[in-house]
């Protein structure tokens, strides 16, 4: 980078960096930038509506026993394979035998639908009750409830909502005859009303406006982050729709992308607007102020955004495409949020100029609220310390060391006597008390985590307005809860000699006669080619119950292998419930790897930015503790049922298997925003004064308002999704909201200041050998803003 000589001191100074030049250019040419963003928004939406793809939960996990068993069935008995769903029929007034003609017509019509492999008539199929076992269908003992098992070549939930028109037409004869017809399983999921997140977004936006108005007083400063975040999110969703045309994304992907995009988009814009307004108060012109804000807070935004994206992309370590694509979906809107913060926000600031505080509801403030200190106002004293850092002709900073420092930036920090200053002084005087209080709070919140039960949320937790919930209740009442998740047992005897196959069937039948937690297992039957034996097992419990999970594992690992021991036969347990258990096993085994990768990457980022080994260790450990606390809250609300009914959740439900993995990657990335924002100011003050305790107090004082407002906004955005009908979205919304709240209060206001005060100078220590191999990353862009950042003390 080229240098120039100061006219006053002759000190070489770096020219403005790329971010400074970008921000200033965007502010100066705001019309071009704003028009380009609006054009991109319109073009992306138009192209997405024309060529964009649909979202579907039609995915599989290759290599799992359930998938291998499904492949065997598709090869030897296509009509017995595929993906099954139930069409449940109930007539409360009379037995269904009086509707035999209508039932035959409906079954025939269902079989003719595209993608249907087979449909079973419950009135002609053998009933379990006739064999002396428990009544698990397909026709109830009283003859008033039955279910048609329909097998599809692909997951019905991925067939598109238009497919339901054909299903509704097929079952119309039964409904016309007065019978109730409901759709269960994945067919019922397809029939769920389309999620409408507009209300959640409106609630989040409304709370954000109130928070910004109360926190900073200016109407334009409150609206600007919201407008830019909305534009960025809409552009991101357009890109996601185009990606969905090339590959399959889960139905929750756009909701997740909206949730994350709005949260980070508002926060990133808020950081820049706050710094810009402080620059205006310091006497800069709007273009220079926007350039400086982009070079400083914008660089922190760039670093934070990259950290979030890295954490989300770390989900690919799971080896499950479904989870990795969820990370990609969220990362898309994070990318557009970062781009918007670095270009659209400066352009909007250039458009507003010096009028950003013209319309206000209270006296506008930026980073520091003036207190009743004698002499100059707090903001003026803050500007006096900041002025040398902003000057384009200021020489290099002094390197903090054990002795007194010379130069204009050495010496005590400006002091104020506002609320946050008094709080910071309390933390400085009693760090051990604040540390203990924070640790105890996190420990209490994290306690429920020790009883976490991962699983799949069944249809029984859905609202009763959903057809799959009504089908679930009808099935449970007539045939028991296990009827909602039948297990298909597969014995592949292709390699078994013909003479030995009867013995295999007899031996396996005896082994399956008495299996714990199995309500009923149908007799083994051979496929038409005689190479495969199949049976259906029903659990005594609901599909999401722990006993059902244990039954699947017991059948797969013990009962079936023992039943064919000494032969060349291979055994599998397949079906939707078995696939969910296999998915759970994979996620549980790979969650520690995800945690290790994400924590390791975040540790390296903090270490490279701040050159402090203990600072990086502290950041990683505290983030893990805060996430554990948020896990505990989610377990208490959903699994223990503490507040679940108030959120529209019926009964106690397990924690969806992939939610902890998603939460960890998202929250760990988002928490780095506040971590970098606070540590940057601590590091900045430390370099200026060489006073570790004063630097912590000063940084806490000038960032507390921004962090508090940013956290309240993100919490409101996430919490607004609690009104969603999708329980996984509710779970993610609560988990993310609680995580941000804990991170911005207990961690940032209690633990970080206390730990940094106790560590003192040791926080910034880095071994010389480690410093030499680490890349140099300037988080706040001080060099790009006209000054050189000096190194810290090292061993």
Low-confidence stretches: 1-15, 369-410, 780-795
Rg, rounded, reads: 31 Å
Round the mean pLDDT to the nearest integer and report it.
81
The helix count comes to 24
Beta-strand fraction estimate = 5-15%
The tally of beta strands, per DSSP, is: 13
Question: What's the overall geometry?
Answer: elongated
- Alpha-beta content class: alpha+beta
Amino-to-carboxy terminus distance: 29 Å
Outline the biggest β-sheet: 5 strands, antiparallel
- The amount of helix comes to 55-70%
Task: Summarize the structure in words.
- This protein has 795 residues and is an alpha+beta fold.
- It is 57% helix and 7% strand.
- The chain is built from 24 helices and 13 strands.
- The protein has helices at residues 18-28, 30-51, 65-76, 100-111, 163-176, 185-190, 198-216, 219-246, 253-281, 286-295, 297-313, 321-352, 378-390, 419-429, 431-446, 467-479, 498-511, 546-563, 576-610, 613-639, 659-689, 692-719, 727-759, 768-773, and strands spanning 3-5, 12-14, 83-90, 116-119, 145-152, 180-183, 454-455, 487-492, 518-521, 525-526, 532-539, 570-574, 655-656.
- Strands 8, 9, 10, 11 and 12 form a five-stranded antiparallel beta sheet that branches. Strands 4-5-3-6 form a four-stranded antiparallel beta sheet, with helices on both faces.
- Helix 7 packs antiparallel against helix 8.
- 55% of the residues are buried.
């Amino acid at each position: 980078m080229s240098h120039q000589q100061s006219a006053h001191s002759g000190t070489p100074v770096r020219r403005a960096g790329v971010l400074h030049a970008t921000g200033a250019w965007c502010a100066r040419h705001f019309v071009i930038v704003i028009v380009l963003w609006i054009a991109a928004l319109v073009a992306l939406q138009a192209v997405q509506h024309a060529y964009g793809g649909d979202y579907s939960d039609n995915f599989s996990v290759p290599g799992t026993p359930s998938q291998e068993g499904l492949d065997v069935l598709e090869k030897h008995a296509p009509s017995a394979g595929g993906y099954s769903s139930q069409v449940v029929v109930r007539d409360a007034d009379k037995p269904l035998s009086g509707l035999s003609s209508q039932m035959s017509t409906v079954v025939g019509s269902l079989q003719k639908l595209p993608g249907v492999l087979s449909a079973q008539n419950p009135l002609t199929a053998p009933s379990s009750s006739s064999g002396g076992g428990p009544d698990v269908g397909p026709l109830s003992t009283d003859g008033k409830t039955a279910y048609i098992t329909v097998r599809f070549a692909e997951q019905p939930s991925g067939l598109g909502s238009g497919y339901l028109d054909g299903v509704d037409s097929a079952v119309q004869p039964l409904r016309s005859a007065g019978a109730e017809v409901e759709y269960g399983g994945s067919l019922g999921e397809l029939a769920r009303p389309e999620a409408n997140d507009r209300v959640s977004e409106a609630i989040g936006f409304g709370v954000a406006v109130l928070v910004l108005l109360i926190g900073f007083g200016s109407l334009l400063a409150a609206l600007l982050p919201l407008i830019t975040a909305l534009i960025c999110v809409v552009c991101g969703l357009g890109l996601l729709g185009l990606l969905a045309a090339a590959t399959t994304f889960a139905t929750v992907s756009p909701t997740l992308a909206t949730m994350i995009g709005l949260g980070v988009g508002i926060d990133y814009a808020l950081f820049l607007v706050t710094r810009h307004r402080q620059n205006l108060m310091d006497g800069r012109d709007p273009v220079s102020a926007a350039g400086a804000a982009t070079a400083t807070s914008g660089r922190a935004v760039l670093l934070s955004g990259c950290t979030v994206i890295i954490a989300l992309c770390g989900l690919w370590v799971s080896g499950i495409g479904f989870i990795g694509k969820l990370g990609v979906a969220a990362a898309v809107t994070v990318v557009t949020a970062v781009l918007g913060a670095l270009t659209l926000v400066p352009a909007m600031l250039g458009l507003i100029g010096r009028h950003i505080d013209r319309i206000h509801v209270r006296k506008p403030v930026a980073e520091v609220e003036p207190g009743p200190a004698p002499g100059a106002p707090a903001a003026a004293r803050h500007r006096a310390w900041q002025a040398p850092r902003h000057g384009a002709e200021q020489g290099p900073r002094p390197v903090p060391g054990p002795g007194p420092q010379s130069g204009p930036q050495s010496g005590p920090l400006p002091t104020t006597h506002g609320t946050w200053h008094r709080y910071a002084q309390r933390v400085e005087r009693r760090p051990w008390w604040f540390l203990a209080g924070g640790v105890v709070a996190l420990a209490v919140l994290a306690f429920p985590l020790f009883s976490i039960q991962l699983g799949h949320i069944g249809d029984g937790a859905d609202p009763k307005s959903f057809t799959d919930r009504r089908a679930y209740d009808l099935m449970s009442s007539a045939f028991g809860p296990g009827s909602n998740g039948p297990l298909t047992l597969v014995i592949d005897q292709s390699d078994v000699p013909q003479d030995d196959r009867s013995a295999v069937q007899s031996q396996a039948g005896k082994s399956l006669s008495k299996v714990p937690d199995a309500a009923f297992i149908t007799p083994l039957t051979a496929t038409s080619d005689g190479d495969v034996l199949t049976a259906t097992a029903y659990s005594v419990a609901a599909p999401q119950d722990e006993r059902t999970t244990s039954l699947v594992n017991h059948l797969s690992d013990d009962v079936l292998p023992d039943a064919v021991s000494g032969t060349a036969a291979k055994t599998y347990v397949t079906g939707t419930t078995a696939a969910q258990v296999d998915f759970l096993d994979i996620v549980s085994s790979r969650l520690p790897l995800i945690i290790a990768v994400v924590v390791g990457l975040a540790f390296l980022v903090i270490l490279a930015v701040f050159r402090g080994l203990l600072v990086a260790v502290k950041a990683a450990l505290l983030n893990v503790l805060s996430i554990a606390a948020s896990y505990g809250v989610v377990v208490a609300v959903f699994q223990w049922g503490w507040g679940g009914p108030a959120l529209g959740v019926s009964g106690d439900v397990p924690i969806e298997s992939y939610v902890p993995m998603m939460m960890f990657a998202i929250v760990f990335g988002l928490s780095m925003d506040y971590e970098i924002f606070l540590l940057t100011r601590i590091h900045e003050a430390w370099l200026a004064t060489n006073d570790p305790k004063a630097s912590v107090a000063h940084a806490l004082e000038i960032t507390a308002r921004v962090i508090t407002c940013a956290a309240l906004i993100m919490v409101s955005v996430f919490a607004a999704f609690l009104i969603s009908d999708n329980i996984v979205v509710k779970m993610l919304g609560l988990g993310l909201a609680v995580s941000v709240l804990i991170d911005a209060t207990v961690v940032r206001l209690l633990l970080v200041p206390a730990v940094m005060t106790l560590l003192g100078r040791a926080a910034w220590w880095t071994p010389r050998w480690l410093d030499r191999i680490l890349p140099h990353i300037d988080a706040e862009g001080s060099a790009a803003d006209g000054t050189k950042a000096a190194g810290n003390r090292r061993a």
